[in-house]
Write a structure and sequence with these properties.
It contains twelve helices and eleven strands. It has a single domain, classed as Vaccinia Virus protein VP39 (Rossmann fold), CATH 3.40.50.150. By secondary structure, it is of the alpha/beta class. The termini are far apart.
Amino acid sequence: MNITNQHLLKDDSLKAKQITAETFGEGKLIEGDTLNVLSKIDDDIVNVGVTSPPYNKQEKQKGWLVKNVVYDVYKDALPEPEYQQNQVDVLNEIYRVTAPGGSFFYNHKIRWHRGNMYHPMDWLRKTAWTVKQEIIWDRAIAGNIRGWRFWQVEERIYWLYKPIGNYLIGKELKSCDAKLTSIWRGVPENGRKNPHPAPFPLWLPARVIISILGTEPQGIVLDPYLGSGTTAVAAKLLEHKHIGIDRSEAYMKMTLDRLGNAASEMPKIHEELALHEVQTTFKERKSKGKNVGKYRPTDSEKDDEQRNFLFQGTTDSELSK
């Protein structure tokens, strides 16, 4: 069986909740509408997801440096209320298919239209997810260099969490992952090398997968707006399973080609893995009495503390003698 037959499905050929953990295989690419395809996936089977949906930038409103961004079969020009409700519906379906304790990383950006600002939190707070963290992606380039505002070089990545019971905090990250901070710096994928209008750089989904799944047994990684397949490639190279959804047949074929040649992209994964290393962990430093970033009083503060302890209960007049 070749890779196409193993992976590629179409949503109109699937029944409700047909994609289960038992029938999953090593990966599924499903061509169709995101919301409709999600309804074909069983509850609680995804471990982590990462995506960047179309931003509803009305296609031509892309900035001074960018003529337009046109997807293969999708028109990125919905009325804003309809767009936001669609995103709420999609995110709630992703919540349903994600296992308790699972995470979803949602890349979006702040947008303006006729002076009105649209912030991703406008609709994220309407979903079932717990918003665990806002990560800034410093892309180091601006699509719009007009001076109406300071040049926007960042996008946002929201770490969404599905709690286990009422425990909203979840599992602690390892030091080697948490040290990468809440600001991720890296330029977007080179558009001349990737014909998709808005592709992820490979390091981004790789960082998510490494940080959340690490060396655990094979997990299931979801990207409901798969595009050129970067998330699926990252999952495969890190030895996890993947679900990728996109309505474009051309993008699906692009993804299949990349999966078939995934080994050629392994050096980029090695570069990201090298960032997830520490010489000594927090626990090891603490056990040896080394600095762990905890507040420590200065020498003068120590003198004051010692003085207060020695003369506890003594009045100022008595001290003056």
